[in-house]
Every structure is written in C-alpha cells, then in structure tokens.
Amino acid sequence: MATIYVYLLEPLADWELGYVTAELNSKRFFKKEAPPIVLKTVGASKEPIQTMGGMTIMPDCLIEDIMVAEGNVLLLPGADTWNDARHSAIIEKAHEFLKANAIVGAICGATAALANAGLLDQRQHTSNGPGFLEMVAPAYQGQHFYMDQPSVADDNLITASSTAALLWAKQIIEQLDIFHTNTLEAWYDYFNTGEAKYFYALMESLPDSNPKN
C-alpha cells in the first residue's frame, strides 16, 4: 500500500491541493487494478493549522512518522511561510524521498523551499515564473534546469506554479498509475475546459460503464 503524505503549514493554499487530494481520497475514478493508497496529513506538530480559506485541519501524523519508501508520495503545498526554520525537517524528508526514487510534488512556495535547499539544482523544474526563485531563494543554483511551464514532471519530482493545480494533479495521478489513460485525459480536459463532451467521455471511460476498459 502506498501512503500519500500531505504536509500542513499555515497559511496553506487550499486550491493548490484540492484537485489531487479529492481524487486520491475519493478514489471515484480509479481503475479496478489501481494499487491501494492511503492519504495522511503531516504536521511539524500535532497542532491544527488554518488554511488561507479558513479551514482548520488536524495532522494525522508527525514528520518523524513518515515512512520513506519508493511507492510513497510527499506533497508540499504553497504558503508564504516556507522560509520558517521549522519546515527544514520536511525539506530533509523531501531530499530522502528523492534519493529513494519516491515522488515529491511541490507547488508554488514549496518550490522555493526546495530551491533554497539545493534540491532543484540538477533537476528540471518550474515555479511561479522566471526570476521568482532567484528572488525568494538566495541559495538557488538551478537556473539552467528551470522550465517556463505551468507544471513540470522530471522523473519523481513534480513542480508547479500556483496557477497550475489541475495540471500538477494530473501529473501526480499519472505517476501513481491509478487512472486509465483515457479516464485521466477526459478528467483533465473536462476540468480544464468545462466542455460537456469531456464529462461524457469521462463517464464512459469508467470500468462500470465500459467492461472492456
């Protein structure tokens, strides 16, 4: 069983996690042979955090409880407090995940924390636009690996800008291999465009709708 760890910090950007956590937790579009997963929230302490949207979330476990394993995933959401020293422990876990070939997903401000720790110096990545990481991460040396794209997947590292939550979610789901390809494409196209034809394509792609899928 794979464990998806979602790091909690204030003030967490709600919208950046919504697409991916909703699908991973509900499993509503999973293919029948998808590997089992469990979603856990992680905190630097057991204290609840409040998101930008005013939602209160309690951590399921602490950073020291995280199991580093190739099948597990660490998701780091955006916030404007990533330069707080208390988050250094989760960045070290991110380093351990990458070394173990486990997936790390970082979006918005979390990319700056990875950049400042040198974890983007040799990997293709993106963030909130050219120049952003130089501005907020003094130790950043990965300019040659920066890609001016909304979301970038480089093996087990998936980075995104604050406006690319949907594409980031798609790339994480793709790496986990939990949707059929046609389901994932229809899911992304529907939420990206709102066009009804993609909704029907999504419904038709599901195992109960098409036994041959």
How are the SSEs ordered, and which strands pair?
Layout: E1 2-7, H1 14-26, E2 37-43, E3 49-50, E4 56-57, E5 61-62, E6 73-76, H2 88-99, E7 103-107, H3 109-116, H4 132-136, E8 151-154, E9 157-160, H5 165-176, H6 181-193, H7 196-205
Parallel strand pairs: 1-2, 1-6, 2-5, 6-7, 7-9
Antiparallel strand pairs: 3-4, 8-9
Helix pairs in contact: 1-5, 5-6, 6-7
Throw out a few tags for this protein.
213 residues, 34% helix, globular
Characterise the protein shown here.
This protein is an alpha/beta fold. The protein is built from 7 helices and 9 strands. The chain has helices spanning 14-26, 88-99, 109-116, 132-136, 165-176, 181-193, 196-205, and strands spanning 2-7, 37-43, 49-50, 56-57, 61-62, 73-76, 103-107, 151-154, 157-160. The strands form 2 sheets. It has a 7-stranded mixed β-sheet with strand order 5-2-1-6-7-9-8, with helices on both faces. Helix 5 runs antiparallel to helix 6 (181-193) and helix 6 (181-193) runs antiparallel to helix 7. The chain is globular, with a radius of gyration of 17 Å. The protein starts with a strand and ends in an 8-residue tail after the last helix. The mean pLDDT is 95.
